[in-house]
Design a protein that fits this description.
The chain is globular and about 55 Å long. By secondary structure, it is α/β, with parallel strands linked by helices. The protein has helices at residues 4-14, 25-42, 57-64, 76-84, 121-133, 150-157, 168-179, 196-206, 221-226, 233-246; strands spanning 47-51, 68-73, 90-93, 106-111, 135-147, 193-194, 209-215, 259-265. It has ten helices and eight strands.
Length: 266
């Protein structure tokens, strides 16, 4: 991964991934809905390869459900956290584009982070092909992406964009629509934000079958963020969660989610 140094440094020195899924309404929606979708996809107990699994938030939930899980992550600090937590996770450092696993050995493979840290389309398709390669024929694949529109909506909902900033943000948002590349100086790190059709095309090229794309947080996640410090925070969050469930795979609104989750068969 040509930008691996920047990404490893970001997650090691500047960002606490371990606490992310509980920090904000958007993150809590992401956690709840991702787990619901994964449990629906995975079904009965089986073996799961969690590629880009970070410190192991989802891996631990799946272990508790009875699955056998192995975690692979680019960031050594994440692997150390996964191994040290409770229960400890079988975890190793690795690159999503070249997985250290034999062909067809897992019932399911997850890519819940790698796709949005790969700027080049060929690398994203390669990571998807690797996920398919290590999964048994007919096994399940789930891959997460960040929506092309997530960054601008997030900055607006949380009051971090001042339209009178001289046009810097507006220019970045305009460029983002065209090329999908996040400007790390504005926030987050090196990342690529997908359009829905583009994500489907990459999955088809990789060989994924039975493709379904879900909008993870739903179309009202930004409302939950905007209401977070007000008297109606809990009610708005609960309503946003219900809309996320209701409109999960509705084609006309899935791009309004912050994250996309594509599922399919190897």
């Amino acid at each position: 991964m040509e930008r691996s140094g920047e990404i490893v440094g970001f997650y090691t020195e500047r960002y606490d991934e371990a606490g992310r899924l509980e920090r904000r309404p958007q993150s809590r929606l992401e956690r709840i809905r991702t787990l619901e979708l994964l449990r629906e996809l995975l079904g009965e107990k089986g073996s799961v390869l969690d590629v880009g699994g970070g410190p192991g938030a989802y891996a631990r939930e799946l272990i508790a459900d009875g699955h056998r899980v192995r975690l692979i992550d680019l960031v050594p600090a994440h692997v150390a956290q996964a191994r040290a937590g409770e229960p400890p996770i079988d975890a190793v450092v690795g690159d999503a584009r070249k997985l250290p696993e034999p062909d067809g050995t897992w019932d399911a493979t997850l890519l819940l982070g790698p796709l949005y840290h790969l700027h080049d389309r060929d690398d994203r398709v390669r990571a998807l092909r690797e996920a398919i390669r290590v999964t048994r024929p007919g096994g399940r694949i789930a891959a997460a992406a960040i929506s092309r529109f997530a960054g601008p909506v997030d900055l607006t909902a949380t009051g971090r964009w001042d339209p009178n900033d001289g046009g810097r943000m507006r220019e970045h948002f305009r460029e983002l629509i065209d090329d999908g590349r996040n400007d790390a100086s504005i926030g987050f790190t090196e990342a690529y934000f997908h359009r829905v059709g583009e994500l489907i095309g990459e999955c088809r090229e990789a060989g994924l079958r039975e493709i379904v794309v879900h909008g993870v947080e739903g179309p009202a996640w930004a409302a939950a963020e905007a209401a977070a410090k007000g008297p109606d925070a809990d009610r708005v969050f609960a309503a946003a969660l219900e809309l996320a469930r209701l409109y999960s795979s509705e084609p006309d609104v899935i791009a309004a989610s912050s994250h996309l989750l594509v599922t399919g068969a190897a």
